[in-house]
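Consider the tokenized backbone below.
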């Protein structure tokens, strides 16, 4: 049976009061002893010799603990602009801010893929499986069958990239397959951003023309 609050806190005799005061005195003594022997808290960074934080030490530990990935390292070997290489590096780690990742963080996001408006946006859907993306890839099948085939048959972004990069050692194929593939992916991402942020869209053929022009200019610059 629960004890009423007034009965739970009542002390009926001098003995109980004396016991309470004795206990209270001991608690205060222990508390004061702890405070007297307590050193001031310090914040130290254990990754430097002087225990002071530095951006370099944080950067170093981040990459020292990362598992090496040949697929990531290969990104920097392709013939492409720096911004396109960074895009590919981000894509291969599934770090593009697509709707599925925004949703997991409860951040504002578009409810479906901006390029097809059919399903929730993910990296593999946006770049390889979206109907709009499939049309773009297919548009290059007449001049570059492997580019279209690798995109069509891919089951993952990394798997697609590994097949694409396997051609990088041959100069002609490096442009025809590697460079073309990454610029298609890059421009599909740009089209997504154009629709999301500028509320403008390009038809497939117009986007393909832009991709072809970019590759031609890059090839001329490289030669």
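A designed sequence for it:
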């Amino acid at each position: 049976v629960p004890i009423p609050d007034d009965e739970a806190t009542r002390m009926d005799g001098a003995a109980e009061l004396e016991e309470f005061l004795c206990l209270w005195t001991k608690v205060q003594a222990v508390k004061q002893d702890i405070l007297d022997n307590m050193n001031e808290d310090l914040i130290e960074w254990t990754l430097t010799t002087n225990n002071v934080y530095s951006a370099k030490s944080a950067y170093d530990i981040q990459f020292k603990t990362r598992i090496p990935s040949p697929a990531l390292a290969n990104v920097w070997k392709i013939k492409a602009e720096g911004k396109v290489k960074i895009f590919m590096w981000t894509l291969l780690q599934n770090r593009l801010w697509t709707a599925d990742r925004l949703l997991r963080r409860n951040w504002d996001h578009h409810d479906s893929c901006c390029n097809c408006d059919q399903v929730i946006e993910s990296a593999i859907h946006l770049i390889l499986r979206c109907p709009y993306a499939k049309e773009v890839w297919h548009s290059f099948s007449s001049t570059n069958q492997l580019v279209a085939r690798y995109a069509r048959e891919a089951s993952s972004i990394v798997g697609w990239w590994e097949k694409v990069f396997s051609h990088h050692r041959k100069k002609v194929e490096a442009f025809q397959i590697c460079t073309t593939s990454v610029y298609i992916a890059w421009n599909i991402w740009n089209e997504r951003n154009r629709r999301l942020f500028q509320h403008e869209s390009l038809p497939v053929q117009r986007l393909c023309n832009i991709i072809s022009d970019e590759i031609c200019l890059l090839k001329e610059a490289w030669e």
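Residues 1-8 have pLDDT under 50 and may be disordered.
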